[in-house]
Write a structure and sequence with these properties.
423 residues, mainly alpha, two-stranded parallel sheet, 83% helix, elongated
Length: 423
């Protein structure tokens, strides 16, 4: 057994070119020569089409009624031929697949053109006989040359098809390896960027935490918690008056009895008892007026209330008006809301909140950038897996092709089947 070769894709390509030069180069050169000849033949066919076009044009201009219709038919046919042959694109490179596609495209054009010749040339006869003979001669030469190219492809070029595909696969492998290397570099950059952003996020979060722990904001948070407790307490104290308040509001809107100021305050007591109590003057005079009118309305049975609800409402009114149930609560509410206003509007609090808002905006931008980087990294990792699979597939195909080359050319390429490609 021959010694195993451990080669990179670049070295493998050079080595394979050297090992197969006597097989590959002559076939490739012959294909190039035949393709060039085919290109020249097609150019002559196009020249013949132009000749038909020009001859028919001249006869059309002469207006010879004997020839006129046939000249117009030939002119149209020549234009059609010319368009078809111009659509045939001779490949710039030489490969099995490019030659095969070229031959198939050309055969399609030749077949359709041959059908048109059989159908239309007899109708044009006996006119333009020399022009038609010239075109047919060039057309037949082109067909013969195409047949020669097809035969060469099927008998000779097919033998290096696997080898040619192997060269292409090695080039693909080189590109994949380069792309993989570039991705690894980008992955390292992303890792560094992510680490830097996360460090910056941590720094900003620590700054926000320190600002939020400032004595002013701590005091403000404490008073907010106190206000929430007072809010619940006010709602609880007035809980038995909520339904009667709604009835009184409905009654007053229909028949009057409450001033606009009292209606506005009544609505506030129903929606936000704490706010209503805290913004009332000391002794809550408006609430007292409302409660007195409520008591009168209930006494006159102007409000439809269940007996139990009416009894509880009367007890609540009595406790507020006669036992000063809300006096202490109102003082606490006023004190709390005043302190909150002082703390909230102080220059120090405004500065702290502005700094926190600015830091939070920066933090959000950094988090957005971090999400973008994570998304890019995920895409790169997915692409990396896909590329590794393509590399494995290409390597497997190359090894398979080399074994086929070894089988078909045992005397010349005996060592190829033992090549190992290292990525």
């Amino acid at each position: 057994m021959s010694e195993t070769l451990k080669l990179s894709p670049e070295e493998a390509k050079k080595w394979l070119e050297k090992e197969t030069e006597s097989v590959f180069v002559p076939v490739h050169a012959k294909a190039k020569k035949l393709l060039k000849e085919m290109e020249k033949t097609l150019e002559k066919v196009e020249d013949a089409c132009n000749m038909l076009l020009e001859s028919s044009r001249r006869e059309i201009e002469r207006r010879n009624m004997k020839v006129y219709k046939r000249a117009r038919g030939l002119n149209k046919l020549a234009r059609l031929f010319l368009e078809r042959f111009r659509r045939i694109k001779v490949p710039q490179g030489i490969s099995y697949n490019e030659l095969l596609n070229f031959i198939q495209d050309s055969q399609e054009v030749f077949l359709i053109t041959e059908t048109d010749i059989k159908n239309w040339f007899p109708r044009i006869s006996p006119f333009f006989i020399f022009d038609r003979r010239k075109f047919l001669a060039e057309f037949e030469k082109a067909k013969e040359k195409l047949g020669e190219l097809q035969s060469f492809l099927a008998k000779k070029y097919v033998k290096i098809k696997t080898l040619e595909e192997t060269f292409f696969l090695i080039e693909t492998l080189q590109k994949l390896k380069k792309e993989l290397s570039d991705m690894e570099i980008r992955k390292k950059q992303i890792t560094d960027e992510k680490a830097a952003i996360e460090n910056r996020i941590n720094e900003i979060q620590q700054k926000i935490t320190r600002l939020e722990a400032h004595e002013t904001l701590t005091s403000l948070n404490t008073i907010n918690m106190e206000i929430e407790k007072l809010r619940l307490e006010a709602k609880h104290v007035l809980r038995h008056l909520r339904k009667p308040f709604m009835k009184l509001q409905s009654f007053a809107l229909r028949q009057g009895g409450l001033t606009p100021e009292e209606l506005k305050k009544l609505d506030q007591y129903m929606e936000n008892p704490f706010e209503a109590l805290a913004t009332e003057e000391k002794g809550f005079p408006i609430l007292r007026q409302i409660l007195q009118k409520l008591a009168t309305a209930m006494a006159k049975s102007e409000l439809k209330l269940k007996q139990d609800k009416k009894r509880k409402a009367e007890q609540a009114i009595h406790s507020i008006l006669d036992k000063n149930l809300l006096d202490d609560l109102q003082q606490k509410c006023k004190k709390a809301i005043t302190l909150k206003k002082q703390l909230s509007t102080s220059p120090e609090t405004r500065d702290i909140r502005r700094n926190i808002a600015e830091l939070q905006e920066k933090l959000e931008k950094l988090k957005h950038e971090n999400r973008r980087i994570l998304s890019e990294r995920a895409k790169i990792e997915a692409k990396n897996e896909e590329m590794l699979k393509r590399i494995r597939d290409a390597k497997h195909k190359i090894e398979k092709n080399l074994s086929l080359i070894h089988i078909s050319e045992p005397t010349r390429l005996g060592m190829i089947s033992y090549a190992v490609f290292c990525l």
